Amino acid sequence: MGMEAIKSVGIDIGTSTTKLILSELRLGRVSSHFALPHFDIIDRKVTYESDIISTPMKNGDEIDLMALAGWLEQEYRRIGLSLSDIKSGAVIITGETAIKKNADALLHYLAERSGDFVVAIAGASLEGVLAGRGSGSSEYSKKVKGIVANIDIGGGTANVAFFQQGKVLDTITFHVGGRLIEIDSAGEVSAVSPSLQLWLFSKNFLVEKGMRLTLKQLSELSSVLCKDMLDCLVGKMPIAAVKSLVHSASSETLPMIDEVMISGGVGRLALEVPPSTLDDAAKYNDIGPILAGELIKALKNYPLSVVEAAQTSRATVIGAGMQTTKISGATISIAPEHLPLRNIPVVKMSYSDTALEQYIERFFLQGKELFHGNFEVPFAISLAEMPYLPYLKLKELAEVLGKVYTRLFPKAAVLVVVCENDMAKALGQALRLQLAADMDVICIDQVVVEHGDYIDIGEPLNDTMVPVVVKTLAFS
Amino acid sequence: MKTKITLLNKTYEFNSLKEILAKANEEKSGDQLAGIAANDAQERLAARHLLADLTLSDIRNNPVLPPEEDEVSRVIEESINEKIYQSIANWTVSDLRENLLAESTANQEISRIRRGLTSEMVAAAAKIMSNLDLIQAASKIEVVTQCNYPVGHKGTLAGRAQPNHPTDSIQGIRASLYEALSYGIGDAVIGINPVIDSAESVKQILQMTKEEIDRFQIPTQNCVLAHVTTQMRAIKNGAPSDLLFQSLAGTEAGNTAFGISVGLLDEANDLIQKEGTATGPNLWYFETGQGSELSSDAHHGIDQVTLEARCYGLAKKYKPFIVNTVVGFIGPEYLYNSKQVIRAGLEDHFMGKLQGIPMGVDVCYTNHMKADQNDMENLAVLLGSAGVNFLIGVPMADDCMLNYQSTSFHDIASVRRVLGLRPAPFFEKWLEKMGIMENGILTKRAGDPTLFI
Amino acid sequence: MQENEIEFIVQKVMEELQRKFPAETKTEQIAKTNEDGLIFTENDWKTSIPAAVYQEGVSDLIASTPARIGVWRTGTRPLTKTMLKLQFDHAAAIDAVGGEVLEKTLAEFDLFTVETCYENKETYLKRPDKGRMLTDNAVRTIKDKCTHHPQVQIVVSDGLSASAVETNLKDVYPALLDSLKINNLSAGTPFFVKGGRVACMDHIGEILEPQVLVLLIGERPGLVSASSMSAYMCYRPRKGVVESDRNVISNIHPLGTPPVEAGAHIGTVLKKMLEQKVSGVKLEL
After folding, report:
1. Which residue range(s) make up the domain with C157?
2. Would A476 be classed as within a structural domain?
3. Residue A350: closest C-alpha in chain C
4. Which stretches are annotated as coiled coil (chain B) (predicted)?
């Protein structure tokens, strides 16, 4: 099959900076010609990187939507692409920006105006994972024995993701960032982020707008900040002991790490010579360069080897642009007129050999209770950890799924099923033969989704496969 | 040329050299399938008596497939040194056999003789040699070649690590590779048969194996056994390949069925010389096997032993680093049982070595043949005694991708131990450095693939 | 807390564990014996590496491939269990080649039986050409019983593994019929060919002249599976068809290409053959 590459965009709107990348994801057959056709992304490459611009703000807590949209348009013009050329990608709002007043509206506004199947994503843990994928940590962890932590430090937060053999173990996010304290070249503090206040208070640091601090004082503060974060990361201090510094964590205890990679804007600064004067330090009007220098110094006190990241300031945007889209196909069942589908919540279930109907009904009722916004597609059913089903069992499963779904969701127009195993064509076909003609079936496979994830399914490529984005909020 | 013979009052007459060559063969189901085998045991011996008495010039002057009609014949014909040929042209096939086996004939002399031999003469000799003849004659011959590192020295036995995986999973391939290395296998080559014949997939596997070679500084070479055109595309896209691989047939038509020609091989040869990653000078890996010409109906009525010898004649043109016959892969319609497989393995090894080919053998069988693992162990030991350059190493001899059984990492280690053979010299030093081998014996650490994680 | 409450919680936890770590709980059942003798399951053949330098890494390596790695050794030889397991799998393969498909299996799907000229198992193995031709009797039978010029002709054959048919037909076949229905295709009269080779498709094509033919046939048994099936498909099969004119889905068994998924996919492939009027490498899938 002649495979064109899909163009995928990544847009990262951060606390201090915003950037965009365009990438090309090349699809190819990854199964032999004697096996069922299975396609996947076989090559990813960045084809365009925008400049890193300052995130346009209207005032302290509102992002300038019009300015951003204008910038986006200008970038697309420069690349010479129209919206319909862009087949996938993600817009992510990172760090403190995500808590700004209009973040949510902005995210969806941009996603819809960035291409056919560009999705909006947010959430500190996801951000950490994308940064780790973009920086090269995930790939690197496949080659080493131990656990690799990717610390992505931007303006507002430090997002840490733990990788082992390419798999995500946990994530944690700290209120550690270069722009949390803004200064000028005289050391005068022009702003202190509210998210740092609690920690400053707990440490008896007095930092307020208008105060003048010396380089030594700022260095000392940054040093303690780094020490607290690293102590927590290596398990010297429990998460509870540095609560004021922790934004969120996926678990109460963190895995033991062996190596670290530093990405993000601060990660880039860490590659430079640390500032020796206030003038030097304040070149971005914040403590970023000082924090970077102190972080490198502090790391020397820990038994961690520091590996250089392949990408620093663009790690997250590259992760968003290149690592969010998956491909399902080519033995699946789809109803093209219903695609794309966006933001479908996932109800995960397995299989029960006994009382299948009651088993399924229980999950469907849970789903009905949790998600009631969308009548046409209340949720997608994820079938995981399935045993191999012989034909008769598969047929029974299709009958029960169809029956219960039709009964509980009379207004639904589509039944969406996501299978972990290679069974979507057979199950989709059995469902199709079972359901009434006005109920469509979308059944895709070889995609792993968890309970509580959201899934986006794009328009079919070459009639036989679909791009899929899984927005994972929790990690096992 | 004599074509008629009377044995104890019974007269046998044959129409051609081709017929004599075919009927002189040990019993093979492939020759029977082609309808060219001897009708009974006595006719077989009649053909063999006649063949023993034919001169080498008889064989050259009566080509089984004329050079004008077949490019493989041309390659073989063009490789002959006329002076040396003239000095032995009057030898009978029997003389050739006895000369090879004479105490006074050593590697040096055999190296001279071979330049005057055609592949058909070599096949003729094999047909009148017993199994132990084939072992002893081959054991005199040393063929040392070098890709990145040399293999083939007397007293050594190398192994190809064949870490295949049913879906080409990079992690899966790597896991089997670690297992191979931990048993001291991988000195001949790290060679993977891919499931997916695409340049991207081939490139990925080459990159991974190269990374592992670099990471542990393993004195070996890498190769992915896809079709040569796929490898060429991968190399042009920057894939790091030490060796080029291709399966060969003994006729032009057989090669056409494989999708290759001498012209294509020449072109590939230029590419690997210019863009390969190895030191050299030997940059090819070929595989052959009795029966492949018949399976593509490209045998021209020639028997499978003679055709196999011609594969080596073709291979010689490209100065290969390693060649192996995949002796029992093709199925019972060509080699029915273990007796036939063992005979073919010894014939192929001898015929390759006599033509100066760095011969290894994939000692193997499929599950619909009358053979089992014991037969493979027998043949592996016989070949070890014959001085085979390398054997194939597959986890527990079971190739989960090609669905056949070969020899295991354990088997190669055992043949080495039983016969006092060593790995290739640089590889042995490396094994010592890694703590896997001491004085040619596996240490306590050996057999633990996690040494490489 | 009441005792039954505790019991309830323990049971819940156990259930949860069972769900999360099914493999681990299975290992507890190792080396069961009863009065009559040993009971072997998959786990009982497992061996382990004593004192691996990175013990945590062993299971990941083993899980990454079906190859028999991490098996350890005694001297340079494999451990007894590893060797017996290999021999056991080989035994299954040998039996699959020598076995026969049960009449009852064929009756379940209304398949009548015809034979090729294979004569017996030994000739079948030595003379693939004989497995490509139906006997005169068979030709008469199918001319008599089958719909001529069907859109889709389905044929089943034992090939090199009778157990492939026994294991997979019950899943592949009904899924295939469903896929014909979904794609609005109609099938002729199906039957079973004893002693068939792939190219018997050509002979059948000459006799019945279907638009497309699908042959479900037992593959040469491997050690991973002795019951693997292939589905060969061809547009207007006839004498002179070459290998590259056929499409195939191979390795069909419960641990390989899933039988129901393979069956479901066949209809799509056949439909494309009918649309493009071609099969094999030229078919765009």
Report:
1. 101-282
2. no
3. C19
4. none
pTM of the predicted structure, to 2 decimals: 0.86
- Both tokens of C169, joined, read 């037909």
Q: What is the per-residue pLDDT across B187-222, written as a single tens digit (0 to 9) for each?
A: 999 999 998 888 989 999 999 999 999 999 999 999
Q: Which residue of A has its CA nearest to B202?
A: A30
Give start and end residues of each alpha helix (H) in chain C.
3-20, 22-27, 55-63, 80-98, 103-108, 121-126, 136-145, 162-182, 200-208, 259-276
Encode pLDDT of A72-108 as tens digits. Answer: 889 989 988 887 888 888 888 887 776 677 777 777 7
Q: Which CATH number fits domain B145-452: 3.40.50.1100, 3.20.20.80, 3.20.20.70, 3.40.50.1820?
A: 3.20.20.70
Domain holding A378, by residue range, is 326-471
Q: How many CB atoms lie within 10 A of CB A162?
A: 27
The counts of H helices and E strands in chain B are 21, 16
Phi then psi dihedrals of residue A152, to 5 deg: -105, 110
Question: What's A67's domain CATH number?
Answer: 3.30.420.40
Q: How far is CA B326 from CA A132, B335, B375, B392, in A?
A: 46, 12, 15, 9
Same domain for A295 and A333, yes or no, is no
Instruction: Calculate mean pLDDT across residues A214-231.
Output: 95
Number of independent structural domains in chain C: 2
**Number of domain units in chain A:** 3
Name C157's Cβ contacts closer than 8 Å, sequence gap at least 6.
Answer: C165, C192, C193, C194, C195, C196, C200, C215, C216, C217, C218
- Contacts of residue A332, defined as CB under 8 A and 6 or more positions apart, other chains included, come to A424, A425, A428, A443, A444, A445, A464, A465, A466
Query: So what's the pLDDT on residue B409?
Result: 98
Distance (Å) from the alpha carbon of B73 to chain C's nearest alpha carbon: 27
Residue C4's pLDDT is what?
58
Same domain, C82 and C172: no
Give dist(CA A14, CA A28) in Å, integer. 34
Beta bridge pairs of residue B288:
B325
Which of B413, B428, B351 shows the shortest CA–CA distance to B386?
Answer: B351
CATH 1.10.220.70 holds for B4-139:
yes
- A421 contacts on C by Cβ (under 8 Å): 258
Q: What is the pLDDT of residues B365-378, one digit of tens each?
A: 999 999 999 999 99
| C174, C65: one domain | no
